[in-house]
Design goal:
The structure holds 2 protein chains of 2 kinds. Chain A is mostly helical. Chain A is about 55% helix and about 10% strand. Chain A has 2 domains: about 40 residues, no CATH class; about 100 residues, no CATH class. A 3-stranded antiparallel β-sheet of chain A has the order 1-3-2, with helices on one face. In chain A, helix 1 runs antiparallel to helix 2, helix 4 packs antiparallel against helix 6 and helix 5 crosses helix 6. The radius of gyration of chain A is 20 Å and the shape is globular. Chain B is mostly helical. Chain B has one domain. Chain B starts with 5 loop residues before the first helix and ends with a helix. The relative contact order of chain B is 0.13. Chains A and B meet through helix 1, helix 4, strand 1, helix 5 and strand 2 of A and helix 1, helix 3 and helix 4 of B.
């Protein structure tokens, strides 16, 4: 059993998650028929409640403008770093210099840290390997990096700062 | 369905080509890179612009064919949730097994075996 604070069992304790579950179900079914709407509602109400012990406290998003800006930054970086990594792969003379990059975290929200690790992995060229919640550090493996300290600072500025604005 | 506007067809073909190109690059990387941790980078490439390009092509094709809805976005969502988790688990397992890495062994992870045991 989870040992943390016990979540009160409430309906709709995670409205955002409920909305995503309902939308996912309707998209999967490709239908807005009444039976599907009923199923979507039941799933959206029951699933977050059943999973409440794993979810932690409800996320309070403090700035939706930052969410949109952050999504833009991430999408742009995915395209740019895809091209960077493609150049490394396709150039036979270019031998990539892999490096371990420890990224110290100021972000404390567990969901925020999970999202940061996900974004680091989704951006080509970096994979989050170890998320050390005791030492507040993500260990990143970089495919091609000559200056780990600069890359860690870059990750903190580009991703961690907006995430702190969103979650804290 | 079989009379798409030439521009729409060109756009669909372009997105398919971009997606296929980045998947090919990911596959070449998988063959070319020297160690386990570097090969771990290949799937993150294939699942972003590779799948992204193919999904945009699929969405444009179905919109042009008159089907409304964006179920393709669900594929993106599921990939975004699952791919990093599996990459993270494989990397953790490789570090635990001390798989050799061209980047050397990360500092501060040498006691990883003990801390892992303590938690488990």
């Amino acid at each position: 059993m989870a040992t943390g604070t016990i979540q009160p069992k409430r309906w709709l304790a995670h409205p955002f998650m409920s909305a995503i579950i309902a939308a996912s179900w309707l998209l999967l079914q490709q239908s807005l028929a009444v039976p599907q709407l009923i199923t979507a509602t039941v799933l959206a109400l029951v699933l977050p409640r059943v999973l409440a012990g794993f979810l932690g406290p409800q996320v309070k998003v403090s700035s939706w403008a930052t969410v949109v800006r952050f999504a833009g930054i991430v999408l742009w970086d995915i395209v740019v770093s895809n091209i960077t990594v493609a150049k490394i792969v396709l150039n036979p003379a270019r031998e990539p210099q892999p490096a371990w990059v420890p990224v110290p975290l100021d972000l404390r929200h567990p969901n925020g840290i999970a999202l940061l690790a996900t974004v680091i992995t989704t951006t080509p060229g970096t994979v989050s390997c170890v998320i050390d919640e005791d030492r507040h550090e993500i260990l990143v493996h970089a495919l091609d990096c000559s200056d780990p300290a600069a890359m860690a600072q870059d990750i903190k500025n580009r991703y961690e700062r907006p995430l702190r604005e969103i979650f804290e | 369905m079989d009379t798409l506007h030439p521009l729409v067809e060109a756009l669909i073909s372009l997105m398919l080509l971009i997606g296929a190109l980045f998947m090919l690059v990911g596959a070449i990387g998988l063959v070319r890179f020297g160690d386990f941790f570097m090969r771990l980078h290949a799937p993150t490439k294939a699942t972003t612009l590779g799948v992204g390009g193919v999904l945009i092509a699929a969405m444009v094709h179905s919109w042009a064919g008159g089907r409304f809805g964006v179920p393709e976005l669900l594929i993106t969502l599921f990939l975004f949730i699952t791919a990093p988790v599996s990459a993270n688990l494989m990397a953790k397992a490789a570090l635990h097994l001390k798989v050799p890495s061209k980047a050397g062994r990360p500092a501060g992870i040498d006691d990883g075996a003990q801390t892992q045991d303590k938690q488990g």
